[in-house]
Design a protein that fits this description.
The complex is a heterodimer of chains A (427) and B (144).
Chain A (H helix, E strand, L loop, with lengths): L7 E3 L9 H5 L5 E4 L2 E4 L9 H5 L5 E3 L12 E6 L13 H10 L4 E2 L2 H18 L6 E2 L4 H10 L13 H17 L6 E7 L2 H8 L11 E4 H15 L11 H5 L5 H4 L6 E5 L1 H12 L8 E5 L15 H12 L35 H17 L13 H10 L8 H21 L1
Parallel strand pairs in A: 5-6, 5-8, 7-11, 8-9, 10-11
Antiparallel strand pairs in A: 1-4, 2-3
Helix pairs in contact in A: 3-8, 4-6, 13-14
Chain B lengths: L5 E7 L9 H12 L4 H21 L3 E7 L3 E8 L7 H4 L9 H4 L8 H7 L3 E7 L3 E9 L4
Antiparallel strand pairs in B: 1-2, 2-3, 3-5, 4-5
Classes of the chains: A alpha/beta (427), B alpha+beta (144).
GO molecular function (chain A): 4 iron, 4 sulfur cluster binding; metal ion binding
Keywords (chain A): 4Fe-4S, Iron, Iron-sulfur, Metal-binding
InterPro entries (chain A): 4Fe-4S_dom (IPR007202), 4Fe4S_Fe-S-bd (IPR017896), 4Fe4S_Fe_S_CS (IPR017900), Cytosolic_Fe-S_CAF (IPR050340), Fe_hydrogenase (IPR009016), Fe_hydrogenase_lsu_C (IPR004108)
Chain lengths: 427, 144
């Protein structure tokens, strides 16, 4: 898989070439060219904002079909805790887990169970690494990707611990191999995801070499399959759950930070807010904090673009579900869990660089400034770029031209017709 | 035509805390696109932000001129404010003349000028009481 795999992609036949997505994209990764949106893969962080905003449903996420289960002899479902917030009147998580088995999975392994282990490991890590404070959470792959391309100074603050879903996948695989004696390739670890970024995190992981997840299903596709099976499950519920309050809380913003049992944290969500926090972090304005939890989606994972329920309603449901649960059900019990730590270094990817050398960059940047002076500054998007400045950068990068600006083009045509009429008079 | 330097000019409005930091954040994003060493960007951003905040708190706003060349980044912060009475004292960490209402906002910790010195390679303050202050800061591109 290439370095710049992205899950979000365009359905060209549905795209009308409007400017909704180019305006919404937080990294300005989209342009409209020849009447269709084009995503620059290097700039895309898979936040899913364009999927949310597109009125023509022309943007979609790549994920697997439930059919993928047939490829494996033994399958394990990894439900994200946000899944539990999708259903009305649910008071027992075991009903969902039982229904997943009825759907055809041989076993389930709760991501929230692994989340409790991650919380325990993180608690220790944060305490022992004061020099790295404030430590930034790495559970949201969109945030990690954003930092990798735009906030090089913050890479050293990243929490080098696997996201709960990755740890869940490793543990589920070990468990299945022990239980069934099957070789690894016959076991399918299948994640039920609230967001497209998790698909990307599986196909081109950051921090770990290879993900143990074999396939990713969209929560919104599993939802209608689960509903009738949940009704059937009510009378013969299996006791399957392995998580308590801490694990379930990971589904919404503040859950991860709360699991650290410290007050010295900040938890932000929504990609624009995340960017503001990262900017302040970079300027050392938040140095007094121990931990920073960041989620690209409003509300946290419950706000993922592949979920069904309103994120805030889902959060209330999670709160209700966890009310009478123990604080945590999964514990390390002195186990080391080496698989929970990142094995690779995160490298800065300067994808937004204008030039190869400082000299070239200075020259190009001053040309951008010149062009911006000439453009009307309306940020109308008619040229296909989200702002006049973005068009100027495109021109300097050699992928657009000045007359893509309709205002410049109009002036040019006026001038041309003036010239032509002068020729007429002379005759 | 090859340009070997970029000049950027910013107005810093007085008493507007919501806009304080706009100029430094703008310079920061430009330096990032130019592929400047992240450590240098950090120094410029912090030093310039401190200067900007100072102009908002103490000096009824002013202007900032930034010149970027392959060798260095120069920031000139100019204001027509009250001037600094005792520069030596102002340079001491923890010394502040900020009024209580500003301190209650979390500013005025007396780290402005010391931070500007710490994060730049050259700092020059030219101030006349009752006339104004010009702060010139330089960060070298190749020094860490």
């Amino acid at each position: 898989m290439g370095k710049f795999f992205t899950s979000v992609h365009l359905k060209e036949d549905l795209c009308k070439g409007c400017i909704n997505c180019i305006k919404r994209c937080p990294t300005q990764a989209i342009r409209v060219r020849n009447g269709k949106a084009v995503i620059t893969k290097e700039f895309c962080i898979d936040c899913g904002e364009c999927i949310r905003i597109c009125p023509h449903h022309a943007k979609e996420a790549t994920y697997d079909s439930p059919e993928v289960m047939k490829q494996f002899e033994y399958t394990i479902a990894l439900p994200a805790p946000s899944l539990y917030g999708q259903f009305n009147h649910l008071d027992d998580i075991n009903i969902i887990l039982t229904a997943l088995k009825k759907m055809g999975f041989d076993d389930v392994f709760e991501v929230s169970g692994a989340a409790e282990l991650v919380s325990e490991i993180s608690r220790k890590y944060v305490e022992e690494h004061k020099e790295q404070w404030p430590i930034i959470s790495t559970a949201c792959p969109t945030v990690v990707r954003l930092i990798q391309v735009r906030f090089p100074n913050l890479i050293e603050h990243l929490l080098p611990i696997s996201a709960p879903v990755d740890l869940a996948a490793s543990l589920a695989r070990q468990k299945a191999m022990e239980k069934t004696g099957l070789p690894s390739e016959k076991i399918g670890i299948i994640f039920i995801s609230p967001c497209p970024a998790k698909v990307t995190a599986v196909k081109s992981p950051i921090g770990i070499e290879k993900s143990d997840i074999d396939a990713v299903l969209a929560m919104k596709e599993v939802y209608p399959l689960l509903l009738p099976l949940m009704m059937q499950s009510i009378d013969d519920v299996e006791e399957l759950k392995t998580s308590g309050r801490i694990g379930i809380s990971w589904g919404g913003t503040g859950g991860e930070a709360g699991g650290l049992l410290s007050d010295s944290y900040l938890a932000a969500d929504g990609i624009e807010n995340v960017i503001r926090v990262l900017e302040d972090l970079e300027d050392c304005k938040l140095d007094q904090l121990e931990f920073i939890e960041l989620n690209a989606c409003a509300g946290g994972c419950v706000g993922g673009v592949l979920t069904v329920e309103n994120p805030y309603a889902a959060k209330v449901k999670l709160k209700r579900l966890r009310k009478y649960l123990p604080v945590a059900c999964s514990h390390l019990d002195d186990k080391e869990l080496k698989e929970a730590y990142w094995t690779g270094e995160v490298q800065y990817e300067p994808v937004f660089n204008l030039g190869k050398s400082m000299k070239e960059s200075i020259s190009k940047m001053s040309r951008v400034e010149e062009l911006c002076e000439r453009f009307p500054g309306l940020d109308c998007g008619s040229c296909g770029a989200p702002t006049c400045k973005a068009l100027a950068e495109d021109i300097v990068r050699g992928v657009a031209k000045e007359q893509d600006c309709i205002h410049i083009l109009r002036d040019y045509i006026h001038k041309l017709s003036d010239e032509l009429s002068k020729i007429d008079i002379k005759k | 035509m090859m340009n070997d330097k970029i000049k950027l000019c910013y107005d810093v409005p007085a008493d507007d805390f919501t806009r304080a930091g706009e100029a430094s954040s703008n310079v920061k994003s430009k330096l990032k696109m130019m592929g400047v060493n992240p450590e240098i960007i950090r120094k410029v951003a912090i030093a310039m932000y401190e200067g900007e905040i100072n102009m908002v708190i103490h000096a009824f706003g002013g202007t900032i001129d930034v010149v970027i060349t392959p060798d260095e980044i120069e920031m000139v912060l100019k204001d027509d404010g009250p001037g600094i009475e005792n520069i030596e004292l102002a340079m001491q960490a923890g010394y502040s003349t900020a009024p209580d209402n500003i301190r209650s906002l979390g500013f005025g910790a007396g780290m402005g000028l010391p931070n500007m010195k710490k994060y730049t390679d050259e700092l020059n303050i030219d101030s006349t009481v009752g006339v104004g202050t010009t702060v010139t800061m330089k960060v070298k591109m190749n020094e860490r």
